[in-house]
Design a protein that fits this description.
- With about 240 residues, the protein is of the alpha/beta class.
- The chain has one domain (about 5-235).
- The protein has helices at about 10-20, 50-55, 70, 75-90, 90-110, 150-155, 180-185; strands at about 5, 25-30, 115-120, 140-145, 165-170, 190-195, 200, 205-210, 225-230.
- Helix 4 crosses helix 5.
- The mean pLDDT is about 90.
Length: about 240
């Protein structure tokens, strides 16, 4: 099985903070939604807006043309993501075992340098990795992710997820009215994508910028984390990207 984790230093938003905070960080990318095989999904809570605006094709991962497996396969980075996703669908336990082994090696490598190991397992997916990876055993590693799953967020609030796993709720065009304020009142951060600039507040909740880095576990809690649309998201008209 090919290497599953990528070094977060390839992400400009995280690279500049790695040395400053002493992090050794990795990110795990899969092919989102059902794009890999047209049937199975790694984004069970996805919405039309997030599918159209997915960062899977932003930055170094940009593609020309339609978002189809055939077209994506023309690009090396997407061939790799498709291959990993198909491997996951084929044997989820074997995939989880391989992922866990890489995380064990990350922890050993980081600690040998007196760094903190950091892992974002859902770079372009929304898999409940807490059901597959023994995060609590990897007790020195800081895990974090975004999710559109309200159930996972409620488990996070109730302390039913691994103690070293931090979740941020991803606001979308299908988020029920009042849910954002409900979650922030519970101490959860809610990521909201805006088209061009960040407002001071959104739905009565103060907005903090999420543009300086991607390490959401570092944010103060109970806020809207404002993000600016990138890539295809700049042209979104589903309601996922907001004009304040």
């Amino acid at each position: 099985m090919a290497k599953l984790l990528s070094n977060a230093s390839t992400n400009p938003k995280t690279a500049k903070l790695l040395e400053e905070f002493g992090y050794e960080a990795v990110i795990h990318h899969m092919t989102p939604d059902t794009l890999a095989d047209g049937v199975h999904t790694v984004c069970p809570w996805s919405t039309p807006g997030c599918r159209a605006s997915c960062l899977n094709t932003s930055g170094r991962s940009q593609v020309k043309g339609d978002l189809t497996a055939e077209n994506l396969s023309m690009y090396m980075i997407h061939r790799s993501r498709i291959g990993k996703t198909l491997d996951f669908f084929k044997d989820r336990q074997a995939y989880a075992d391989a992922l866990t082994l890489e995380l064990i090696l990350l922890e050993k490598r980081a600690l040998s340098k007196c760094y903190t190991p950091v892992a974002r397992l859902n770079g372009t997916s929304d898999v409940p990795w807490e059901n597959f990876v023994p995060m609590d055993v990897l007790s020195n590693t800081k895990f974090y992710d975004y999710t559109k799953s309200e159930q996972r967020i409620r488990k996070f609030v109730a302390g039913k997820l691994p103690f070293n796993y931090d979740l941020t709720y991803s606001y979308n065009e299908c988020t029920p009215k009042g849910r954002l304020k409900e979650f922030t009142d519970l101490g959860v951060n809610v990521a909201v994508v805006f088209r061009s600039e960040l407002p001071g507040a959104f739905q009565g909740v103060d907005v903090i910028s999420g543009m300086e880095h991607d390490f959401r576990f570092m944010d103060k809690k109970g806020y809207v984390v404002g993000l600016i649309a990138r890539g295809r998201a700049k042209h979104d008209r589903t309601g996922f990207v907001l004009d304040q």
